[in-house]
Specification:
single chain; 175 residues; alpha+beta; 4-stranded mixed β-sheet; 10 strands
């Protein structure tokens, strides 16, 4: 059954605004039946007209079960633990290796709080974005000072732990 919209002018108050509406002759239609829908789908067009997605590149591997823990390094003090990205540990002294764990134990703590709690064996080295992306290397004066600290050194940018890409090694000249 069709119900035509009458052309009527009406003023409708909407949140303090007044709107003037007129039925612009929009025609009501019957609902489509499942059979008609199947006919239209068989005729093509619609979503079937869009390009099919490409097959995935076999060289690109996605982890079966993505996990932030698998993509991070876990640091623990025995009671608390935190995550830092892989590639953010700049220096790991032998005597501090027991703080790098494979399974979290205790209470998760945000990086900034974890650093404050463990300042005796953990240190943050501020790096620029150019250093993090590998465009600028970390100075040798800085890297030479790390062993004297005796602490795990984590790269940070704007207070958060960040991965550091090693600087590109220039190719040897071809002879």
């Amino acid at each position: 059954m069709k119900f035509p919209i009458q052309k009527v002018a009406a003023i409708i108050p909407v949140t303090g605004l007044m709107l003037l509406t007129t039925g612009i002759g929009a025609e009501m239609r019957d609902r489509i039946t499942p059979e008609e829908l199947l006919k239209r789908k068989a005729a093509g067009g619609g979503m079937d007209a869009f390009q099919k997605p490409n097959t995935p590149d076999p060289r690109v591997k996605s982890p079966a079960t993505p996990s932030i823990i698998n993509e991070s390094i876990l640091l623990s003090d025995g009671n608390h633990w935190t995550l830092v990205p892989k590639g953010s540990v700049l220096h790991l002294p032998e005597k501090q290796k027991h703080h790098v764990v494979t399974q979290p134990t205790g209470t998760f703590t945000r990086w900034s709080e974890f650093l404050k709690r463990n300042i005796s064996w953990l240190s943050a080295e501020s790096v620029s974005m150019d250093t993090a992306t590998g465009k600028n290397p970390i100075s040798t004066e800085t890297t030479d000072a790390w062993p004297r600290r005796g602490a795990i050194v984590i790269a940070v940018h704007r207070g958060g732990a960040i991965s550091v890409k090693p600087p590109a090694v220039p190719e040897p000249p071809k002879s």
